[in-house]
Every structure is written in structure tokens, then in C-alpha cells.
Amino acid sequence: MTFRIRHAFLIPLGLLCLEVLALLASCLWFDEPLAKSLILGFMILPVLVLFAESLLRQARFDDETIEVRKLLRRKRLRFADITAVESILIKKRAFITLCAGDDDYLILSNAYADFPRLVRLLLARVPASSISAEATALAADPPSKSSDIVSCWLAALLLGFILYAQLKSHLGAALPL
């Protein structure tokens, strides 16, 4: 069973990446001031890393292990080795921490699609003695978070408007509106 980051977040984030790249390309094409291109260049890096990290992140379950894959990283824990399952809720952001000894841990959040199912499957596989009361409560009523999706869509709309204004100022009457 594989869980990935929600598509509702990946779509606007991917659009945002394309818009930042298009804006940088238009700045270079139209010989905009160097400072503008440098600012966009610095903006691109965290947006692209966030997109790549979110796109590649996945949690995989089998009968004996959970494996979390991230950009350039992979970590696996055996369910039998898990000694503690903790959870924390910050506003509507939920985190589940799986600990196996002192140094081995995984953190999952409700950014994953079908998070309620992920939590139920996880708690069914780990030793019952390792599950905290908070984790049990979270499994009973997992929160749904959408503010990151709304924020990403707003950023994509704003950057789309900026890109349109940039192109309109250079191409003039060739663009509608």
C-alpha cells in the first residue's frame, strides 16, 4: 500500500513552479534588470525543491515494514521494532511520530492523501503497547487541512497575474485584455 502527498497540493505547486520559471525566462528574454532576475532565481530554488520533495515523497506499507521515501532519502522501520507511536496536532496540521529505539524514527503528516486510512493501517500494524492515547484519539478523528492548498492556489494566481502583466508590458496589444 502506497500513500503520496495530496494531488490537490501538488497541482497548484507545479503550476507555481512553471510560472516562476516562465517569469524568469521572460525577465531574461526581455532584458529586465539583473536584480529582478536574481530575486526570481533565488525564489525558484525553494519552490522547485518543495515541489520535487512533495512529488517524490511516499509512505509504503507492507505486512512487516513501513518505508518513507523522500528526495534523495529513504527510511524503513519494521513494525515489530516500533516502541512508540506519538501524535501532535498543531492547528489542523497533524503529525505522527514512529520511534524504534533511540535513534530510529519516522514522522508522517496529514499532507498525505487519505491520511485517515494511513493512520488506521499504521495503528493496526504496530504493537498496541506502543500507541499513545493521543495517537488513538487522532485515529478516531483525523483532521483535514486545506490552508496549504488555498495558499498555494493564491500564490499561483498572484504569480500568474504578475506574469501576465510582465508579458503585457512587453508584448502590448498582442495579449488580450
Describe this structure in words.
The structure is a single chain. With 177 residues, this protein is of the alpha+beta class. The chain folds into two domains: 1-56 and 146-177, no CATH class; 64-145, no CATH class. The protein is 51% helix and 23% strand. The chain has a four-stranded antiparallel beta sheet. The chain has a three-stranded antiparallel beta sheet with strand order 5-6-7. A hairpin with a 2-residue loop joins strand 3 and strand 4. Helix 1 packs antiparallel against helix 2 and helix 1 packs parallel to helix 5. This is PH domain-containing protein. The chain crosses the membrane at residues 38-56, 149-167.
Topology (elements, then pairings):
Layout lengths: L1 E3 L2 H23 L4 H23 L1 E4 L3 E6 L2 E6 L5 E7 L2 E8 L3 E6 L5 H11 L7 H8 L6 H25 L6
Antiparallel strand pairs: 1-2, 2-3, 3-4, 5-6, 6-7
Helix pairs in contact: 1-2, 1-5, 3-4
Structurally, the number of domains stands at 2
Largest sheet: 4 strands, antiparallel
Spatial strand order of the main sheet: 1-2-3-4
Terminal Cα span: 48 Å
Shape: elongated
Number of strand elements: 7
Quaternary structure of the protein: single chain
Average pLDDT over all residues: 90
